[in-house]
Hints:
The chain has helices spanning 8-11, 29-43, 79-89, 121-124, 131-147, 156-166, 183-186, 192-203, 222-230, 250-258, 276-282, 297-304, 317-321, 333-345, 347-361, 366-379; strands at 2-6, 48-53, 68-72, 97-100, 113-116, 150-153, 173-175, 208-213, 237-242, 265-269, 285-288, 309-312, 325-328. The chain is an alpha/beta fold. The protein has two domains: 2-179 and 365-379, Rossmann fold; 183-361, Glycogen Phosphorylase B (Rossmann fold), CATH 3.40.50. The strands form two sheets. It has a seven-stranded parallel beta sheet, with helices on both faces. The chain has a six-stranded parallel beta sheet with strand order 10-9-8-11-12-13, with helices on both faces. The radius of gyration is 21 Å and the shape is globular. The chain starts with a strand and ends with a helix.
Amino acid sequence: MTIGINGYEAVIPRFGYDPKTGLPRRVGSGEYCFQLLLNLNKIDKQNSYIIYLPENPTSDLPKESSSWHYKIIKPRKMWTLFGLSLEFLFRRSKPDVFLSPTHYLPIIAPNRSAISILDVSYLKFPELFQKSDLNQLTKWTKYSAQKASKIFTISQASKDDIIEKYGIMANKVVVTYPGVKLKTQMSKLKTEAQNSNLLKEKYGIEGKYILFVGTLQPRKNIVRLIEAFSKLNKPNLDLIVVGKKGWKFEEILAAPKKFGIENKVKFLGSVSDEDLPAFYKNAICFVLPSLYEGFGLPVLEAMKYGCPVVTSNISSLPEAGGDAALYIDPLNVADIKKNLELIINNQELRKDLIRKGYEQVKKFSWEKTAKETLRVLEGI
Protein backbone atom coordinates (compact mmCIF):
# COMPACT_ATOMS: atom_id res chain seq x y z
CA MET A 1 0.00 0.00 0.00
CA THR A 2 1.13 3.56 -0.71
CA ILE A 3 0.38 6.15 1.97
CA GLY A 4 0.52 9.83 1.07
CA ILE A 5 1.07 12.39 3.84
CA ASN A 6 0.85 16.18 3.82
CA GLY A 7 4.12 17.15 5.51
CA TYR A 8 3.61 20.93 5.37
CA GLU A 9 3.38 21.46 9.13
CA ALA A 10 6.68 19.66 9.75
CA VAL A 11 8.80 22.01 7.62
CA ILE A 12 7.10 25.43 7.74
CA PRO A 13 8.33 27.44 10.75
CA ARG A 14 5.29 29.15 12.23
CA PHE A 15 7.42 30.32 15.16
CA GLY A 16 10.74 30.86 13.42
CA TYR A 17 13.93 28.82 13.57
CA ASP A 18 16.06 27.60 16.44
CA PRO A 19 19.26 29.71 16.15
CA LYS A 20 21.48 26.81 17.24
CA THR A 21 20.14 24.07 14.97
CA GLY A 22 18.61 26.12 12.18
CA LEU A 23 15.55 23.86 12.39
CA PRO A 24 11.93 25.05 12.68
CA ARG A 25 10.56 25.66 16.16
CA ARG A 26 7.79 23.07 16.19
CA VAL A 27 4.85 23.32 18.54
CA GLY A 28 1.31 22.02 18.31
CA SER A 29 0.47 20.73 14.85
CA GLY A 30 4.08 21.15 13.72
CA GLU A 31 5.41 18.79 16.40
CA TYR A 32 2.49 16.41 15.85
CA CYS A 33 3.19 16.14 12.10
CA PHE A 34 6.95 15.83 12.60
CA GLN A 35 6.65 13.06 15.19
CA LEU A 36 4.15 11.13 13.05
CA LEU A 37 6.58 11.16 10.11
CA LEU A 38 9.53 10.20 12.29
CA ASN A 39 7.74 7.29 13.96
CA LEU A 40 5.86 5.95 10.93
CA ASN A 41 9.21 5.72 9.19
CA LYS A 42 10.58 3.88 12.22
CA ILE A 43 7.80 1.31 12.72
CA ASP A 44 6.45 0.58 9.22
CA LYS A 45 8.58 -1.54 6.89
CA GLN A 46 5.65 -2.89 4.83
CA ASN A 47 4.09 0.14 3.14
CA SER A 48 5.46 2.81 0.82
CA TYR A 49 5.19 6.53 1.59
CA ILE A 50 5.00 9.74 -0.41
CA ILE A 51 5.53 12.82 1.78
CA TYR A 52 4.28 15.97 0.05
CA LEU A 53 6.20 19.13 0.97
CA PRO A 54 6.25 22.79 -0.17
CA GLU A 55 10.06 22.85 0.12
CA ASN A 56 12.97 20.49 0.73
CA PRO A 57 12.77 18.30 3.85
CA THR A 58 14.56 19.51 6.95
CA SER A 59 17.70 17.64 7.99
CA ASP A 60 16.00 15.95 10.95
CA LEU A 61 13.30 14.26 8.85
CA PRO A 62 13.85 10.64 7.75
CA LYS A 63 16.13 10.12 4.76
CA GLU A 64 14.68 8.94 1.47
CA SER A 65 14.70 5.21 0.77
CA SER A 66 13.06 2.71 -1.55
CA SER A 67 9.84 3.02 0.47
CA TRP A 68 10.06 6.63 1.68
CA HIS A 69 9.89 9.47 -0.85
CA TYR A 70 9.55 13.26 -0.68
CA LYS A 71 7.69 15.14 -3.38
CA ILE A 72 8.18 18.91 -3.55
CA ILE A 73 5.17 20.86 -4.82
CA LYS A 74 5.19 24.62 -5.48
CA PRO A 75 4.11 27.40 -5.12
CA ARG A 76 3.68 27.61 -1.36
CA LYS A 77 0.76 30.07 -1.17
CA MET A 78 -2.53 28.30 -0.34
CA TRP A 79 -0.46 25.14 -0.64
CA THR A 80 -2.69 22.50 0.92
CA LEU A 81 -5.87 23.72 -0.75
CA PHE A 82 -4.55 24.37 -4.25
CA GLY A 83 -1.01 23.01 -4.66
CA LEU A 84 -1.96 19.54 -3.49
CA SER A 85 -5.27 19.74 -5.39
CA LEU A 86 -3.40 20.10 -8.69
CA GLU A 87 -1.19 17.16 -7.75
CA PHE A 88 -4.22 14.92 -7.31
CA LEU A 89 -6.27 16.46 -10.16
CA PHE A 90 -3.64 15.51 -12.73
CA ARG A 91 -2.98 12.20 -10.93
CA ARG A 92 0.75 12.84 -10.80
CA SER A 93 0.86 10.45 -7.84
CA LYS A 94 -1.75 7.98 -6.67
CA PRO A 95 -1.58 7.10 -2.97
CA ASP A 96 -3.97 4.40 -1.78
CA VAL A 97 -4.76 6.51 1.27
CA PHE A 98 -3.91 10.12 2.08
CA LEU A 99 -3.36 11.73 5.50
CA SER A 100 -3.34 15.47 6.09
CA PRO A 101 -2.21 15.91 9.74
CA THR A 102 -3.83 19.32 9.87
CA HIS A 103 -7.41 20.59 9.74
CA TYR A 104 -7.45 20.85 5.95
CA LEU A 105 -7.80 18.55 2.96
CA PRO A 106 -7.01 19.73 -0.55
CA ILE A 107 -10.10 20.72 -2.54
CA ILE A 108 -9.37 17.71 -4.71
CA ALA A 109 -8.16 14.78 -2.61
CA PRO A 110 -8.10 10.98 -2.88
CA ASN A 111 -11.38 9.32 -1.91
CA ARG A 112 -9.69 7.56 1.00
CA SER A 113 -8.39 10.49 3.04
CA ALA A 114 -8.00 11.45 6.69
CA ILE A 115 -7.32 14.66 8.57
CA SER A 116 -6.26 15.63 12.10
CA ILE A 117 -8.20 18.15 14.19
CA LEU A 118 -6.25 18.73 17.38
CA ASP A 119 -8.90 20.97 18.95
CA VAL A 120 -11.86 23.20 18.09
CA SER A 121 -10.98 26.18 20.28
CA TYR A 122 -11.83 28.47 17.34
CA LEU A 123 -15.48 27.34 17.64
CA LYS A 124 -15.67 27.45 21.44
CA PHE A 125 -13.83 30.78 21.85
CA PRO A 126 -14.11 32.63 18.50
CA GLU A 127 -13.54 35.99 20.19
CA LEU A 128 -9.98 34.94 21.04
CA PHE A 129 -8.93 34.60 17.37
CA GLN A 130 -7.98 37.04 14.66
CA LYS A 131 -10.85 37.39 12.15
CA SER A 132 -8.80 36.17 9.19
CA ASP A 133 -7.60 33.06 11.05
CA LEU A 134 -11.09 32.37 12.37
CA ASN A 135 -12.65 32.58 8.91
CA GLN A 136 -10.11 30.13 7.48
CA LEU A 137 -10.36 27.68 10.35
CA THR A 138 -14.14 27.70 10.43
CA LYS A 139 -14.82 27.26 6.71
CA TRP A 140 -11.96 24.98 5.66
CA THR A 141 -12.22 22.67 8.65
CA LYS A 142 -15.97 22.16 8.17
CA TYR A 143 -15.44 21.24 4.51
CA SER A 144 -12.55 18.87 5.32
CA ALA A 145 -14.31 17.23 8.27
CA GLN A 146 -17.30 16.33 6.12
CA LYS A 147 -15.15 15.02 3.26
CA ALA A 148 -12.61 12.97 5.24
CA SER A 149 -13.02 9.21 5.76
CA LYS A 150 -11.55 9.49 9.26
CA ILE A 151 -10.64 12.29 11.65
CA PHE A 152 -7.76 11.91 14.11
CA THR A 153 -7.74 13.92 17.31
CA ILE A 154 -5.63 13.88 20.46
CA SER A 155 -8.07 13.56 23.37
CA GLN A 156 -11.52 12.27 24.22
CA ALA A 157 -12.54 15.83 25.10
CA SER A 158 -11.62 17.01 21.60
CA LYS A 159 -13.43 14.03 20.06
CA ASP A 160 -16.61 14.94 21.94
CA ASP A 161 -16.31 18.55 20.75
CA ILE A 162 -15.78 17.51 17.10
CA ILE A 163 -18.82 15.22 17.18
CA GLU A 164 -20.95 17.96 18.75
CA LYS A 165 -19.81 20.88 16.57
CA TYR A 166 -19.74 19.09 13.21
CA GLY A 167 -22.52 16.52 13.67
CA ILE A 168 -20.18 13.65 12.85
CA MET A 169 -20.69 10.01 13.77
CA ALA A 170 -18.55 8.88 16.70
CA ASN A 171 -16.90 6.02 14.77
CA LYS A 172 -15.47 8.50 12.27
CA VAL A 173 -13.35 10.23 14.94
CA VAL A 174 -10.33 8.40 16.37
CA VAL A 175 -8.38 9.43 19.48
CA THR A 176 -4.62 8.95 19.21
CA TYR A 177 -2.95 10.53 22.23
CA PRO A 178 0.26 12.44 21.49
CA GLY A 179 3.56 11.31 22.94
CA VAL A 180 6.42 12.85 24.81
CA LYS A 181 10.07 12.46 23.90
CA LEU A 182 11.98 10.66 26.62
CA LYS A 183 15.28 8.90 25.93
CA THR A 184 17.12 11.43 23.80
CA GLN A 185 16.27 14.45 25.91
CA MET A 186 16.56 12.79 29.30
CA SER A 187 20.07 11.62 28.46
CA LYS A 188 21.16 15.22 27.89
CA LEU A 189 19.96 16.65 31.19
CA LYS A 190 22.47 18.84 32.99
CA THR A 191 23.30 18.59 36.67
CA GLU A 192 21.42 20.76 39.14
CA ALA A 193 24.42 23.10 39.41
CA GLN A 194 24.67 23.41 35.63
CA ASN A 195 20.96 24.20 35.41
CA SER A 196 21.25 26.94 38.04
CA ASN A 197 24.30 28.48 36.37
CA LEU A 198 22.58 28.46 32.97
CA LEU A 199 19.51 30.25 34.32
CA LYS A 200 21.58 32.83 36.16
CA GLU A 201 24.21 33.57 33.53
CA LYS A 202 22.09 33.39 30.38
CA TYR A 203 18.66 34.50 31.59
CA GLY A 204 19.37 36.46 34.78
CA ILE A 205 17.13 34.19 36.87
CA GLU A 206 18.03 33.64 40.52
CA GLY A 207 15.92 32.33 43.35
CA LYS A 208 12.55 30.60 43.29
CA TYR A 209 9.97 30.89 40.55
CA ILE A 210 6.74 29.54 39.11
CA LEU A 211 6.91 28.57 35.42
CA PHE A 212 4.53 28.96 32.50
CA VAL A 213 5.44 27.64 29.03
CA GLY A 214 3.24 28.30 26.01
CA THR A 215 2.33 30.71 23.24
CA LEU A 216 1.16 34.13 24.41
CA GLN A 217 -2.51 34.16 23.37
CA PRO A 218 -5.80 34.72 25.22
CA ARG A 219 -6.74 31.02 25.42
CA LYS A 220 -3.75 30.36 27.70
CA ASN A 221 -5.39 32.52 30.41
CA ILE A 222 -2.12 34.16 31.40
CA VAL A 223 -3.74 37.40 32.58
CA ARG A 224 -5.69 35.56 35.31
CA LEU A 225 -2.52 33.69 36.25
CA ILE A 226 -0.66 37.00 36.67
CA GLU A 227 -3.52 38.42 38.73
CA ALA A 228 -3.53 35.35 41.00
CA PHE A 229 0.25 35.52 41.33
CA SER A 230 0.01 39.19 42.34
CA LYS A 231 -2.14 38.18 45.33
CA LEU A 232 0.31 35.61 46.73
CA ASN A 233 2.40 38.08 48.73
CA LYS A 234 5.58 36.10 48.07
CA PRO A 235 8.33 38.74 47.67
CA ASN A 236 11.04 36.16 46.97
CA LEU A 237 9.12 34.38 44.21
CA ASP A 238 8.99 35.24 40.49
CA LEU A 239 6.74 34.19 37.63
CA ILE A 240 8.67 33.14 34.53
CA VAL A 241 6.75 33.14 31.24
CA VAL A 242 8.40 31.25 28.37
CA GLY A 243 6.87 31.41 24.90
CA LYS A 244 6.60 33.44 21.73
CA LYS A 245 4.01 36.13 21.11
CA GLY A 246 1.02 34.61 19.35
CA TRP A 247 -1.98 36.88 18.85
CA LYS A 248 -3.91 39.36 21.00
CA PHE A 249 -1.00 39.33 23.44
CA GLU A 250 -1.01 43.05 24.34
CA GLU A 251 -3.21 42.58 27.43
CA ILE A 252 -0.91 39.79 28.63
CA LEU A 253 2.20 41.97 28.41
CA ALA A 254 0.43 44.83 30.18
CA ALA A 255 -0.89 42.67 33.04
CA PRO A 256 2.17 42.79 35.37
CA LYS A 257 2.04 46.58 35.51
CA LYS A 258 -1.73 46.54 35.90
CA PHE A 259 -1.45 44.35 38.99
CA GLY A 260 1.61 46.09 40.41
CA ILE A 261 4.18 43.31 39.95
CA GLU A 262 6.06 44.42 36.84
CA ASN A 263 9.39 43.48 38.48
CA LYS A 264 8.18 39.99 39.47
CA VAL A 265 7.08 38.70 36.05
CA LYS A 266 9.65 37.95 33.36
CA PHE A 267 8.68 37.35 29.71
CA LEU A 268 11.54 35.47 28.08
CA GLY A 269 10.15 34.75 24.62
CA SER A 270 11.27 31.49 23.04
CA VAL A 271 13.80 29.28 24.80
CA SER A 272 15.78 26.60 22.98
CA ASP A 273 14.92 22.93 23.44
CA GLU A 274 18.37 22.51 24.95
CA ASP A 275 17.78 25.13 27.66
CA LEU A 276 14.12 24.46 28.47
CA PRO A 277 14.78 21.44 30.78
CA ALA A 278 16.69 23.72 33.16
CA PHE A 279 13.58 25.85 33.63
CA TYR A 280 11.43 22.83 34.48
CA LYS A 281 14.03 21.27 36.79
CA ASN A 282 14.46 24.43 38.88
CA ALA A 283 10.82 25.60 39.08
CA ILE A 284 8.67 25.36 42.22
CA CYS A 285 5.91 24.24 39.87
CA PHE A 286 4.65 24.50 36.30
CA VAL A 287 1.27 26.18 35.75
CA LEU A 288 -0.96 25.78 32.69
CA PRO A 289 -4.26 27.58 33.45
CA SER A 290 -5.66 27.31 29.90
CA LEU A 291 -9.30 27.87 29.08
CA TYR A 292 -9.11 25.08 26.51
CA GLU A 293 -6.50 22.63 25.21
CA GLY A 294 -6.65 19.89 22.59
CA PHE A 295 -4.38 17.91 24.90
CA GLY A 296 -1.85 20.00 26.84
CA LEU A 297 1.51 18.45 25.98
CA PRO A 298 3.51 20.87 28.24
CA VAL A 299 1.88 19.12 31.21
CA LEU A 300 3.75 15.93 30.29
CA GLU A 301 6.90 17.86 29.41
CA ALA A 302 6.95 19.28 32.95
CA MET A 303 6.32 15.88 34.53
CA LYS A 304 9.09 14.36 32.47
CA TYR A 305 11.60 16.73 34.07
CA GLY A 306 10.31 16.26 37.62
CA CYS A 307 8.34 19.48 37.85
CA PRO A 308 5.04 19.39 39.79
CA VAL A 309 2.06 20.54 37.69
CA VAL A 310 -0.87 22.86 38.36
CA THR A 311 -3.38 22.94 35.51
CA SER A 312 -7.02 23.57 34.59
CA ASN A 313 -9.78 21.13 35.45
CA ILE A 314 -11.47 21.50 32.05
CA SER A 315 -11.30 20.21 28.45
CA SER A 316 -8.58 17.62 27.86
CA LEU A 317 -6.18 18.64 30.63
CA PRO A 318 -7.35 16.01 33.17
CA GLU A 319 -6.65 13.37 30.48
CA ALA A 320 -3.07 14.59 30.20
CA GLY A 321 -2.50 15.10 33.91
CA GLY A 322 -4.34 12.10 35.36
CA ASP A 323 -3.86 11.91 39.13
CA ALA A 324 -0.43 13.53 38.86
CA ALA A 325 -1.54 17.18 38.74
CA LEU A 326 -3.20 19.73 41.00
CA TYR A 327 -6.32 21.09 39.29
CA ILE A 328 -7.73 24.62 39.31
CA ASP A 329 -10.82 26.42 38.06
CA PRO A 330 -9.23 28.59 35.34
CA LEU A 331 -12.02 31.20 35.52
CA ASN A 332 -11.60 31.71 39.27
CA VAL A 333 -8.62 33.85 40.27
CA ALA A 334 -9.13 33.03 43.95
CA ASP A 335 -8.98 29.29 43.20
CA ILE A 336 -5.80 29.71 41.16
CA LYS A 337 -4.24 31.67 44.05
CA LYS A 338 -5.36 29.11 46.64
CA ASN A 339 -3.83 26.17 44.78
CA LEU A 340 -0.61 28.02 44.00
CA GLU A 341 -0.24 28.72 47.74
CA LEU A 342 -0.94 25.06 48.48
CA ILE A 343 1.76 23.73 46.18
CA ILE A 344 4.30 26.41 47.13
CA ASN A 345 3.93 25.74 50.85
CA ASN A 346 3.60 21.94 50.78
CA GLN A 347 6.86 20.18 49.98
CA GLU A 348 5.35 16.72 50.48
CA LEU A 349 2.62 17.48 47.94
CA ARG A 350 5.25 18.53 45.42
CA LYS A 351 7.21 15.30 45.99
CA ASP A 352 4.04 13.23 45.56
CA LEU A 353 3.11 14.97 42.31
CA ILE A 354 6.64 14.52 40.96
CA ARG A 355 6.54 10.80 41.71
CA LYS A 356 3.12 10.39 40.11
CA GLY A 357 4.20 12.52 37.17
CA TYR A 358 7.03 10.16 36.24
CA GLU A 359 4.47 7.33 36.08
CA GLN A 360 1.95 9.37 34.11
CA VAL A 361 4.49 10.20 31.39
CA LYS A 362 5.12 6.50 30.74
CA LYS A 363 1.58 6.13 29.38
CA PHE A 364 2.29 8.30 26.34
CA SER A 365 4.69 7.83 23.41
CA TRP A 366 4.84 9.01 19.81
CA GLU A 367 5.47 5.42 18.74
CA LYS A 368 2.08 4.46 20.16
CA THR A 369 0.54 7.41 18.31
CA ALA A 370 2.10 6.27 15.03
CA LYS A 371 1.03 2.62 15.50
CA GLU A 372 -2.60 3.55 16.11
CA THR A 373 -2.55 6.01 13.19
CA LEU A 374 -1.15 3.35 10.87
CA ARG A 375 -3.75 0.82 11.99
CA VAL A 376 -6.56 3.25 11.09
CA LEU A 377 -5.00 4.23 7.75
CA GLU A 378 -4.69 0.56 6.77
CA GLY A 379 -8.33 0.10 7.77
CA ILE A 380 -9.38 2.95 5.47
